[in-house]
Backbone:
């Protein structure tokens, strides 16, 4: 699948509630906008979308890693928007394990399940991409997200596929839970 447009977003927090954030929290999201080959019609076999997702994911994850530098990824998430002539299942087909494995590879590895969100939208939609720690889902400090708005995408016959990464957990986290220092990284949970 040919990427028609790429959009990039950076949200960097250096101060929160009057407290300096050290290191800064940098969250990035990169979007690939593609034509939806199944817009306006039912297609039983969506495996071509899943197969194409690897190349799309590799490209946008690479761009996201560039935006995250000099920091290393600690959290990740993914999302997909489908234009009004498509089905939610079209973007879900692009966010399977095939896509997730490319995201993990770009992040230097990751054991945890990757949080995601998909929905059908009109152009100009806003989406919240959930973030969680890449090696242990139960690290509460890293439950976060990044909100982006696509001003003129996806068009009715398009898909928008999104990767998001962050270099750390929320600033000033203090509600307990598994600490980053205590991650075992065996099962993707703790």
Residues:
């Amino acid at each position: 699948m040919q990427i028609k447009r790429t959009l990039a977003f950076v949200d960097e927090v250096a101060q929160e509630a009057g407290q300096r954030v050290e290191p800064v929290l940098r969250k990035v999201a990169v979007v690939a906008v593609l034509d939806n080959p199944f817009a306006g019609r039912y297609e039983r076999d969506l495996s071509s979308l899943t197969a194409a997702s690897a190349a799309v994911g590799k490209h946008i994850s690479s761009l996201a890693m560039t935006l995250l530098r000099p920091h290393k990824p600690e959290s990740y998430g993914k999302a997909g928007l489908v234009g009004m002539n498509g089905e939610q299942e079209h973007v879900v087909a692009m966010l399977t394990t095939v896509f997730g494995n490319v995201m993990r590879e770009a992040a230097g590895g990751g054991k945890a399940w990757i949080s995601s969100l998909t929905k059908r939208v009109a152009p100009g939609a806003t989406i919240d991409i959930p973030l969680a720690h890449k090696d242990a889902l139960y690290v509460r400090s890293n439950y976060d997200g990044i909100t982006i708005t696509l001003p003129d995408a996806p068009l009715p016959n398009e898909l928008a596929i999104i990767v998001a990464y962050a270099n750390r957990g929320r600033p000033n986290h203090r509600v307990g839970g598994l600490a980053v220092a205590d991650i075992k990284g065996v099962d993707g949970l703790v």
